[in-house]
Specification:
single chain, 2 domains, 4 helices
């Protein structure tokens, strides 16, 4: 399948919305056979949406230069890709070996997210780092700006290390409320990291712990301040508090304070 155009994407998102409403409204009344058909049609639409989303560069390994690509919906936060609790897992290419996790930020440029009906938790208005993660062995972060088909701007902050780091020491992924992983016994476990964010990026650039990909670089190379580069992501204006988008509105929550939400996670 080809990547979605704006018109195709909007039509598909509307079909998904209608199919979801139809399935929810009829989940108790019709026969099991009808419910099964409705569910199959709904998940087929979600699968088509995920398959046809454009794949964008979310970062590069700062050690090997290997690309880290993921599906991305650049047309608006009403798409299921943005939802806090997605119902369909998109098949993605294997990440480079040193990849650990990625966080993100979204700047709506002051506009109201009128298209957002389901909950979206896209982070703050500007890129940031998590100092605790950068204190882990060998960890380096890379900031990448994503290209939208709207005036919105988003940044992915990916974290990389050649060292083996237990998943419990990492962080929930961008747009997700929880970080799910396999513990030492092979069982599913989860945490909600509440780490402090730091928006003053210059010290991390100076020490080589933070690097970036210039959005105007056609080769999309990983740059670093130690080599004389000038990072374009410094001093980006916006609110530093976490956003919650839902029901066409934007709500701002308190900043993470570093206290453990699950005190016995470790």
């Amino acid at each position: 399948m080809s990547d979605l155009t704006r018109e195709q994407r909007d039509a598909l998102v509307e079909k998904i919305r209608v199919a979801e409403a139809d399935l929810y409204q009829k989940r108790f009344g019709p026969t099991a056979k009808v419910r099964k058909r409705l569910r199959k049609a709904y998940y087929a639409l979600l699968g088509e949406y995920g398959d046809r989303l454009p794949r964008r560069l979310f970062g590069r390994c700062p050690f090997s230069g290997a690309p880290f690509t993921r599906a991305f919906d650049p047309f608006g936060v009403d798409g299921p890709w943005w939802h806090t609790n997605p119902l369909e897992t998109i098949t993605e290419p294997t990440a480079p070996r040193a990849y650990k996790i990625h966080l993100g930020a979204l700047n709506l440029g002051g506009r109201s997210p009128s298209e957002a009906s389901e909950e979206v938790i896209p982070g703050p208005d500007a890129p940031f780092v998590v100092p605790r993660l950068l204190r882990l062995p060998g960890m380096v972060a890379v900031v990448t700006q994503l290209k939208f088909e709207t005036s919105d701007r988003a940044w992915v902050i990916s974290y990389w290390s050649s060292d083996l780091i237990p998943p419990v020491r990492l962080h929930q992924q961008w747009l997700r409320r929880e970080h799910w992983f396999k513990n030492e016994r092979g069982e599913s476990a989860s945490i909600i990291a509440n780490d402090i964010w730091d928006f003053d990026l210059e010290p991390y650039l100076a020490y080589g712990r933070l690097r970036w990909i210039d959005p105007d670089d056609p080769q999309q190379r990983v740059m670093q301040a130690l080599a004389g580069g000038c990072c374009p992501f410094l001093g980006i204006a916006g609110d530093h508090r976490p956003q919650v988008l839902a029901d066409g509105m934007r709500d701002l929550k308190e900043l993470p304070d570093g206290y453990s939400i699950y005190p016995f996670a470790d």
